[in-house]
Amino acid sequence: MCSADKFGKLKTLLQMIMLFVAGLVWLKLLSMDKVLFGNIQVAHLYNVLLWAVVIVTIGSGANYFIKNRELIADKSKKS
């Protein structure tokens, strides 16, 4: 078993931040129309976080398969 690399840890961090923002909206403690940090709406922040999670997740998965391709190939040969 291998531990998560930096991609996996970044993915987890982004997911937690995105879920925290979504939870605040769901609990009605934050509105999607609310403006944060100058001119950024919560809806825009959420969309950026969502796409960042998607991109980092794809990169993390690709990195995992590239780093472990020999292990995956060996297991498929034994089956």
Structure description:
This protein is mainly alpha-helical. It is 72% helix and 5% strand. It contains 3 helices and 2 strands. The protein has helices at 6-26, 42-67, 69-78, and strands at residues 35-36, 40-41. It has a two-stranded antiparallel ribbon. Helix 1 packs antiparallel against helix 2 (42-67). It is elongated. The two termini are 19 Å apart.
The sequence of SSEs as H and E is HEEHH
| Gyration radius over CA | 18 Å
The rounded distance between the terminal residues' Cα atoms is 19 Å
Percent of residues in beta strands = 5-15%
- Strand order of the biggest β-sheet: 1-2
Estimate the helix proportion, in percent.
Answer: over 70%
Q: What's the shape? A: elongated
Q: Low-confidence parts, pLDDT < 50 over ≥5 residues?
A: none
Please outline the major beta sheet.
2 strands, antiparallel
Provide the structure class: mainly alpha
Average pLDDT confidence is: 86
Query: How many distinct beta strands?
Result: 2
Number of helical stretches of at least 4 residues: 3
Can you summarize this structure?
This protein is 72% helix and 5% strand. With 79 residues, it is mainly alpha-helical.
